[in-house]
């Protein structure tokens, strides 16, 4: 029986999502618990995620799937997993799906948010959950520039080395930010059919510089023409990044088509 599982996690004490030797990762913790629930079958059960998140990156709605050797009601699965998972992880929802569903290859889109604290100094109670920017910014200027991210583009200037992607073309459907006055934060949100290695963190770095006036409003268009990562310069900290939602065919009516195979 195949299960689709939506999880949230605090990425502070994880070395990212993907399993790594001698490292605490989200995938390794979840795999350990799933196999314990299944009484350690042979071969061991594999857990497949919608994609990787880096060390320090959080998730509000990461999705994984795995195949269990027996049929357990979804709510019992949710309760059982949560009773064994560490305190910085939580299973939010469980659904039984057919064998054609794949947490990674069935994805049609992803939504990320980024929280940027605007305090004069770094807040010790927010340091693991926000980025930090102490200079004045113009939110309208940022949102004007963010319009240039929307659509299909070659994001070579916005991808870190070591990406491994077949192509740097991606499509962004929504991009922008708003001021959360209560928490003195800029909150960025991006929704697209997929994102490259460090792409969101680089885009935020460019946008805050535009908002601060150290880049022109058409700075994103200039970066498309330059097609060179060095000119984007800044990568904001992982601590402020959250994978908010993963969309699949059927639950994303505006953009129902999964990511083209050459872009996965």
Verbal overview:
This protein is α+β, with helices and mostly antiparallel strands and 264 residues long. The chain folds into two domains: 2-97, Alpha-Beta Plaits (2-Layer Sandwich), CATH 3.30.70; 108-249, Pseudouridine synthase I, catalytic domain, C-terminal subdomain (Alpha-Beta Plaits), CATH 3.30.70. It is 20% helix and 28% strand. The protein contains five helices and ten strands; from the N terminus they run E-H-E-E-H-E-E-E-H-E-E-E-H-H-E. The chain has helices at 26-37, 74-84, 139-146, 199-211, 219-226; strands spanning 2-9, 48-49, 58-67, 89-97, 107-117, 131-132, 151-154, 169-180, 185-192, 241-248. Strands 1, 2, 3, 4, 5, 6, 7, 8, 9 and 10 form a ten-stranded mixed beta sheet that branches. Helix 3 crosses helix 4 (199-211). The protein is globular, with a radius of gyration of 19 Å. The model has no long low-confidence stretch (mean pLDDT 94). Belongs to the tRNA pseudouridine synthase TruA family. Formation of pseudouridine at positions 38, 39 and 40 in the anticodon stem and loop of transfer RNAs. Its EC number is 5.4.99.12. It comes from Secundilactobacillus similis DSM 23365 = JCM 2765. This is tRNA pseudouridine synthase A.
